[in-house]
Design goal:
Length: 132
């Protein structure tokens, strides 16, 4: 049994965009999520909020897509913030250490209210390990 995967963009404003995901975020869905996020970044929305409230499953491909999106956003002087992370995914982020560089909020509205953007991302991005 699989949940059909959907990608919506319910909010854009200036450099900010919310990308809402629902269903199974797996090897089949990850390329489409990454492509849509990169389209948003290229369209001038490098500060992304990934609303994960509807995600029912996430595998390593989904985690890899989030890291790739974070890197692309960072390269565009933007950020990636996670919102409404399901419990299982929250544990995966913690175990993998991804929670140290991907800020999170309880909802997309909370992320927007917190003023998620480049200034928040700068401190979060600085915490991530870098090569060199």
């Amino acid at each position: 049994m699989t949940d059909a995967f959907h990608i919506d963009v319910p909010h854009t404003d200036g450099t900010l965009a919310v990308i809402a995901l629902s269903g199974e975020f797996d090897i089949n869905a990850a390329p489409a999520v990454r492509a849509r996020a990169l389209e948003l970044i290229a369209a001038g929305h490098p500060d992304l909020v990934a609303d994960l409230a509807g995600v029912t499953f996430c595998d390593s491909s989904g985690l890899g897509a989030l890291v790739g999106i974070w890197r692309c956003a960072k390269d565009a002087n933007g950020s990636l913030t996670l919102a409404a992370i399901p419990d299982r995914l929250d544990r995966l982020l913690s175990v993998t250490g991804m929670d140290t560089f991907l800020p999170a909020h309880p909802s997309a509205d909370a992320a927007l209210a917190a003023g998620q953007g480049p200034t928040t991302a700068s401190s979060a991005a600085g915490a991530a390990p870098t090569a060199g």
